[in-house]
Amino acid sequence: MTDSSAVSITAVSKSFGRGSAAVRVLEDVSVEIGQREFFTLLGPSGCGKTTLLRLIAGFETADQGRIAIEGQDVTQAPPFRRPVNTVFQNYALFPHLTVEQNVGFALVEQQMPAAQIRARVGESLEMVRMQSYARRRPAELSGGQQQRVALARALAPRPKVLLLDEPLSALDLKLRKEMQIELKLLQAEAGITFLFVTHDQEEALTLSDRVAVMQGGRILQMGAPREIYETPTHRFVADFIGDINLIEAEALPGNTIRLIGGAQITHPHQAHGRVTLAIRPERARIVALDASHLQARVVHTAYLGTALVHKLALADGSTFLLRQSDLDGAQPSLGSQIGLSLPADSLRVLVQ
Ligand SMILES: Nc1ncnc2c1ncn2[C@@H]1O[C@H](COP(=O)(O)OP(=O)(O)OP(=O)(O)O)[C@@H](O)[C@H]1O
Question: What ipTM goes with this model?
Answer without folding.
Answer: 0.94
